Batch of 4 targets.
Target 1
Amino acid sequence: MDSFELNKIIGAILGTLLFVMGVGFIAEAIYEPAHSGPGYALPEPTGNQTADNGTPAAAPVDIGTLLAKADPKAGEAAVKKCQACHDFTEGGPNKTGPNLYDVVERQIASHPGFSYSAALSAHNKDTWTYENLNAWLTSPKTFANGTKMTYAGDSDDSDRANIIAYLSTLSHSPKPFPQPKAPAGGQAPASGQTTAGSSSVAPAAGVPTPSTNEQNGQNPTPASSAGVTSASSAAEPSSAPASSAAASSASEAPTSSAAAPASSSSAAQ
């Protein structure tokens, strides 16, 4: 092969490269994305998140309520997926992760012979409470950002509760579960409040009851009619002397003996 043929081959290669570069420049110029203006940071999600249908998102259930319904036997079956990295027996060895026997209420990042990540060691002033275990199993990277643990977490509430309930049994003195929190709006009424169906108004002291009237041998009389009766009874003595006085004056005789019966009659009335 002479130099002329070699130059043609090299020229063809360079021409092809230039053609490909030119096509790339042209395509970039045609399909360059348009810039609509400066971007802006999206707001952080707030605690009052809503679902896709617009209804408020369900609040997380507290660990006390979850553990009250947890099944340790189901948790024992669920931790089989963890046995490749953890040992659950008393005095067992460390594997990729530390031994988890008697882990509840144990100081975080404190198991002997295991090298913890700096992210988890930053929590060594705290203990593995039920709340911390729940947060850790939900998302290890959220609990300790930078942890070496590759486990992504468990979003199923009942599954996490079963696992934690099983971990609590791995001890000679299992720690008691926390009490479930009271639901919102479930407080008992205050001492000054009354419940539905009851009345806070005391009955009138002067109103006679049917039992009192029956003991006295009287018919029960309503309070309103009793007031009318007493009023008319009080008016009768004043009207009776007046009528008797008129009657006595009309029948008054010249003699004193006729006036005496009249006065005695009015006195009797």
Target 2
Amino acid sequence: MSDARSAILCGCRADLTSESGVRVRQRVAFVFAGLLVALLLTIDVWAQVSRDWTESFPPFRIAGNLYYVGSKGLANFLITTPQGNILINSDLEANVPMIERSIEKLGFQFKDTKILLISHAHWDHDAGSAMIKEITGASYMVMDADVPVVESGGKADFQYGNKREFLYKPTKVDRVLHDGDEVRLGGTVLIAHLTPGHTKGCTTWTVKVTEGDKSYDVVIVGSPNVNPGYQLVHNPAYPQIAEDYERMWRVLESLPCDIFLGAHGGYFELEEKRALLKEGGANPFVDPGGYRKFVAEKEQEFRAELTRQQRASN
């Protein structure tokens, strides 16, 4: 090593151990820590967005005047009537153009959406509502306990309200719904069932559709999931959360169901059933057994998690 190069290296080592060198190292460490936190937050945000949430899926008719217009992972349902159409769920803001294309591929007009409903006030199901209202002028109807969350853009959510990555554009609700309320348009009647727990106003929708000479009871499940981090015991932000889940199981178990649908395609095996759907054949979405099995499995998961948390709190 040359004397000049050696002197430079020695000088660097000496500088890093001096008072000014310590300050430099502290600044570098601080910047690195900040970058690491930013990276982890970015990873966390994208971990919440499953790839299939934004992956397009061919729109299709489920039965009667009920259509699927969602992505592979996030479910949207269109109910057509002579007086305009009803859309269930707005999903991510990035999904709105996809929903519009799906509706128009089926031969309907996005601007004919007269009523917008949601399954529950989480960003993956309602972040696009403001955009859809702006484009279509649809009347936005939301279950009472979820209205504060929707109108605050997620800030009033008991679990995610203080997490920036779960917030979205606040949207004015045009009609506040209550358990058992009917939503009517053009001869179609949907009933809003309060099935709380996942959110305070989580809503399961029921409607009857006619296919040929048969009438089917449709159930669109809001969400029975206990998300990671949900505190079922001694939750100051949602004291009655466990009791609300218990209410949800009672409601879901009481509903007559022929056609089983839900807020995520994975709930009701969207891909598998769509592949089996053939003109003139048996409709795979008519699956009362699958509905009962899904509810039973989700209730079992809830009870296992509740027991674990109760034991840990003792």
Target 3
Amino acid sequence: MFFRGRFRFHNSMNPDFSRTSRAQDTVGFHIADYRAVLSDLDGVITQTARLHAAAWKRLFDDYLKEIGVRTGSTFRAFDLDDDYRLHLDGKPRHEGVRDFLKSRGLSLPLGSPTDGPDRETLYGMGNKKDGYFEAELRETGVTVYQGTVEFLRIAKQAGLKLAVVSSSHHCAGIVATVGLTSLFEARVDGHDIDRLHLPGKPAPDAFLEGARRLAVEPQRAIVIEDALAGVRAGHAGGFGLVIGVNRRNQAAALREHGADVVVADLAELLPHPSESSSHPQR
């Protein structure tokens, strides 16, 4: 099966991809050249990234106001766009807290994963944010990106193995809520990252663990991510193709961080019926 789309290659990566003649900068790839797809969850499969961003803003705006009162410093609000995508998106909670606070010249002790939301530690702050996220989730529910779901289903029908790889501790529950549990052969989530002591994205370890669970070599697998840290992880892990999903007007940055393909939605890569029939599954 042949997938289409506008691609940007890095030097000699993916030399076997086929080029189409329909548009000057359009190339395609045969899904049968790969054995697996490893996809992020929030912002790729489900429309939950905005809930995470809103929870982070609530947490940090409250905290920064408190710091201003303590120190007399000027309050500067958390930016839902830049602060979220640059410091938090795709990372384990405590690492995101660390990186955002560092950007504001602040720091906190690491603490323990069991720290309650009242503890002023990296883990405590992260756990407090998690409570805000759960409240948002209960109020709004979960919606999927249909283009991604269709892409994954076509890949599975073509014989590829699928894994969802996410730093979220809610991954299993969210996937179950939207009825996609049976779509995936493997899952690596925040609980696995904690248990296995894996470094978070942009380190590639979570994706490499997903590939190991699928028994697939990274160069024969596709990574799908919307976060800058996520595409960096896919690139660093030596995966055969890294698809960046541009949900936040950051197409150039996704390419710079390692995406081979950048699309606004996975629906852009779905094959036309004529392409499916002219390029049979191998």
Target 4
Amino acid sequence: MKNISTAQGRRKTIILASALALLWLSCLAESQQTVTSRTNVVRNSATDPEAEQVREVIRGVVESVDARRWGSLTDGFAESVYVDYTALFGGYPRSYLADDLADNWRQLLERFSMTRHVLGPIVVEGDESKAQAKCPVRINHFLRGAAGGEDWVVTGQFLFALEKRGATWRIESLVLDVRSQEGNSNLLVEAFAPANKRLPCQDCLVGQRAQQGQPRSTIATHLKPRT
């Protein structure tokens, strides 16, 4: 009888231990789901306020570049921005202070009569303080009277990393992944040739005329993000 009682006690102990283990695993799974739901607050959702704020920062930077609003361009940048355009220009990626990056782009792009960035859907992922975004892009460069052709079109994908400072999202990394080029790929060289130098005000006027009648949004639904 004593052996039977001992065996029954062991079985009860095993059953109790198994029940406690299942309860622990259930609580662990619930805890992990709670953490995931708290951290994955920035999603690819048009109704998610955080994700839409990220998209607005990206659109604002692109629109400032095309409208040549260099003074407001830094509003969307972190203090230092890592930039990688090596897929287009070669060389090496580097980090810029926000003001230096804006001035670099001003000197580069004001040589053209007009630029226009057309973005596809912006896919956003991240949490409450860090976000990554990607979108297809078509960049049109136009130089009036260029001997080799007036247009140069670059198609590819932008990859952004953003950080939230206070209540504002800021771009801290920008990478351009080039898929294809069309038109006069020598247009940048021609833009800096002495015969094609233009006064900044003339360039701005050309750019302003080109922007008139264009919708504020630069989203193109036919462009699809690359995976």
